[in-house]
Amino acid sequence: MVANFVNTTLLRKTLQGADTIIHTAALDAPYVGMVPDHEFEWVKVKGTRLLVKAA
C-alpha cells in the first residue's frame, strides 16, 4: 500500500487480514535540507504511531 497515513479508515481497511507490515518510513537523503524537519518527524514518528495503532 502506498498512501497517506492520515486516512486512518483506509489504513485500517487495508490492514485487515494482514499478517505482516513492512513500513519503510520514506523521506530520506535527497530531501534532507529541502523538506522541513517536522515533515520527517511526521513520516517517521507520527506516521509509524498511526500504523501501529491501526494494526
What does this molecule look like?
The structure is a single chain. This protein has 55 residues and is mainly α. It has one domain (8-17, 24-54). Helices cover 47% and strands 0% of the residues. The protein is built from 2 helices and no strands. The chain has helices at 8-15, 37-54. The longest helix is centred in the C-terminal third of the chain and has 18 residues, at 37-54. The two termini are 14 Å apart.
Question: Top keywords for this entry?
Answer:
55 residues, mainly alpha, 2 helices, 0% strand
Q: What characteristic shape results from the CA principal axes?
A: elongated
Give the % helix: 40-55%
Total number of helices: 2
Largest sheet: none
User: What is the end-to-end distance?
Assistant: 14 Å
DSSP summary, beta strand count: 0
**β content, as a range?**
under 5%
* Radius of gyration, taken over Cα atoms and rounded to an integer in Å: 12 Å
Concise structural overview:
The chain has two helices and no strands. The chain is mainly α.
